[in-house]
Amino acid sequence: MSGFGGFLLRRAVGTAVTLLAISVLVYVVFYATPGNVAQITCGPRCSPEQVHQVAQQLKLGDPLYLRYWHFLEGIFVGQDYSTGTSVAHCPAPCLGLSYQSDQQVMDIILTKLPVSLSLVLGAMVLWLVIGVGTGVLSAWRRGRFSERVLTAVTLAGWATPVFVLGLVLMIVVCGELQLLPFPQYVNFADDPEQWAWNLLLPWLSLALIEAAAFARLTRAAMLETLAEDHIRTFRAYGVGERAIVGRHALRGALAPVIALNANNVGSAVGGAVLTETLFGLPGIGQELVHAVKVVDLPVVVGMVLVVGFFVVIANAVADVLYAVADRRVVLA
Amino acid sequence: MSLVEVTDLTVEFGSLRAVDGLSFRLAEGAALALVGESGSGKSTVAGALLGLHRGTGARVGGSVHVAGTDVQQASDGELRRLRGAKAAMVFQDPLSSLDPYYAIGDQIAEVYRVHTRASRRAARARAVEVLERVGIPDARRRSRSRPHEFSGGMRQRALIAMALACEPDLLIADEPTTALDVTVQAQILDLLHTLREETGMGLLLVTHDVGVAAESVDEVLVMRHGKAVEHGPVGTVLGAPAQAYTRELLGAVPRVDAPRAAVAEASDEVVLEATGLRREFGRGRTAFTAVDDISLTVRRGETLGIVGESGSGKTTLGRMLVGLLPPTAGGIRYDGRPHTGVNPAVQMVFQDPVSSLNPRRSVGESIADPLRARGEHDERIRGRVLELLERVGLEAAHYDRYPHEFSGGQRQRVGIARALAADPRVIVCDEPVSALDVTTQAQVVALLGELQRELGLALVFIAHDLAVVRQVSDRIAVMRRGQVVESGPVDEVYDTPREPYTKQLLAAVPALDPELAAQRRAARRELAVA
């Protein structure tokens, strides 16, 4: 077990280092670019005095590494901002202040994050069930007519853009059949049942598209495992085809599925812009696009960091699951 | 009713007829070996006994009856009830033959439950019981290990335990010891022998190694091109073969007890000298010393044999001798002068003739590489390569062919030609014949001997096969855990070994004579007790 403990420790350190590297990169990319950073940060409608004030708050006179240190300090211990008349405290983790909306970046993110997480985690359950299930079925029925139908369906799913699938779903389910109301985000804490009903369509349309990739991956990995020697052993010992596919071949497909899932969950937190827009979900992706459009630099930096955080954490969790699934990983 | 009855069996894969009209019987409790070179169809026969070709696209003709089941006519359900319960199979590579994700005990329990409807607990208990039976120490705890946590020999024991779980009437063993070291091989063969004595089950052994057959069975069936060449009691077939092919096969098998035919007189001139060679891999807690303080000399025109089991450091030593791997400590002197790095005068022939040739280049180009590296002119290169091809028994027309068009033996000839291209004085051969069939092996060994006499080459011959090494070497060094445990003139070491480890190795070599094999088995039991 000490081997596994050491493995966890190495992974944790690696994750922390990656996060730090991301923060450096993001900070440098956005704050060391040529041009008047204070003007950009403050927004186009700021007066010269306001720009000057922002420049002072951002300590633009200081060298870059000091400013970055200050930024880190904000994340870990918090920061005070003077707005001219009063001093506002921004508690840790503080990602700065949006001068365009006079809001703390963290507050903006915290209102958007539950929406994105609701969408992505719910969709994840669906795409895993649908995707892996379809993959197992098509590996089991390999070479037969039913497998070809499944392959065609998953390919079609992969090729359909989310705005087409989502729109069609919405028109049919909410418009024609009137089975569901047109989606509108409801807080989980307010009404869990309404939360789920309203998210059902967004979940489905995001999941159906992602599921295609999982189906194909599962099928390929299972067929590869089915060709291995140990499968021959169990066949030669009279183990039935159902147990061979369901126990031995599926186990071999688990590792790549875990890896792909981590990637998808991580990037969908900030990347499901189309789904969020289509169903009017006020999530991270939508907000990020908005912040980029109006060049609200602190918000962009904060959001990119948070999205990066989720990608890295999702991958770290995947690494650990991977090692639980296959202990040989720990030795490597 | 016999345990196995095969009548006029044919198996075809596409246009290839792998088994061609084979018939044989196996009485209850008897043991039969199918012996043949690669491609003779022996493993295909083993698969046919369990109906393993069903659903693979192979066409199977004739009839196969195993333990009262008509394998050809049986339903899928009937076949499953035969597999594992009445006839169980042990495969060649014990690592890839077990599921890497599940504990070994669980895998055995799963097979047991398929056939007995036992409870989970009872099946798990049965798994521990059979693991104990095949000699896994601390079986209860080890049954929770996954295959990669077992050594090669223990994995093969685990597979045998799986076969024993349902007390089958027939054990089919397909090259059960080919992936194992000679001492482990002896342990596994002894285990099979004891189990057969105790349970009275029949054994069908598939092997390319005549010695393994001599150790283990009552009857031998020699196969070639899918047909039976000769079939009879083991003593008769191996002792007084009636067929020319059987004689050829037996003649090619190197004997560990036959002294080497004398070759050219040894010279005193030392070409290569290694002193205090040491090589470590890894750092810190994972550090591992592969070669630990080895000193040796190679004289002009002689062959130094290096034997040892897997992991003993043979290959690492060979790579250091040719300069492919820098030693951690110690040095190499060539012609009396210190030398580091690669040396055109010291060449290497590799084990696997498939992967040591670039598949995308013609063999002529591969042989020309050392000449190009030396800056030879293009016009002269082709002529020299053609000369080399003929020298190793190939033809000039082979220059533009690619490695996949050659057989294993021919590829190894290409490897030898490439080593000769640089006009070496020493060639280090790392397991040069272990991937080859015995008849091809004998031809390649003969070629190396010829070249040695003609060119006055010094050879370092690294191998795990003690018999082959005896046939080619003047002096030998026995390696274990990175050190040389015993060295000296070849006949002295083989006939009067001093070290217990050398004795153990020699006692483990399978004998071709069944009576001698039985004596050796008894001797091993004594050694094990002592």
TrEMBL record, chain A:
Its main location: membrane. PROSITE patterns: ABC_TM1. It is a multi-pass membrane protein. One of its GO terms (biological process) is transmembrane transport. Residues 113-322 form the ABC transmembrane type-1 domain. Belongs to the binding-protein-dependent transport system permease family. It is found in: Cell membrane. One of its GO terms (cellular component) is plasma membrane. This is ABC transporter permease. Keywords: Cell membrane, Membrane, Transmembrane, Transmembrane helix, Transport. The chain crosses the membrane at residues 12-30, 115-137, 149-175, 195-215, 299-325. The keyword Transcription does not apply.
UniProtKB/TrEMBL annotation, chain B:
One of its GO terms (molecular function) is ATP hydrolysis activity. SUPFAM superfamilies: P-loop containing nucleoside triphosphate hydrolases. Keywords: ATP-binding, Nucleotide-binding, Transport. Residues 4-250, 272-506 form the ABC transporter domain. Gene3D superfamilies: P-loop containing nucleotide triphosphate hydrolases (3.40.50.300). InterPro entries: AAA+_ATPase (IPR003593), ABC_transp_ATP-bind (IPR050319), ABC_transporter-like_ATP-bd (IPR003439), ABC_transporter-like_CS (IPR017871), Oligopep_ABC_C (IPR013563), P-loop_NTPase (IPR027417). It comes from the Bacteria. Pfam families: ABC_tran, oligo_HPY. PANTHER family: D,D-DIPEPTIDE TRANSPORT ATP-BINDING PROTEIN DDPF-RELATED, TRANSPORT ATP-BINDING PROTEIN. Belongs to the ABC transporter superfamily. This is ABC transporter ATP-binding protein. It comes from Streptomyces cellostaticus. The lineage of its organism: Bacteria, Bacillati, Actinomycetota, Actinomycetes, Kitasatosporales.
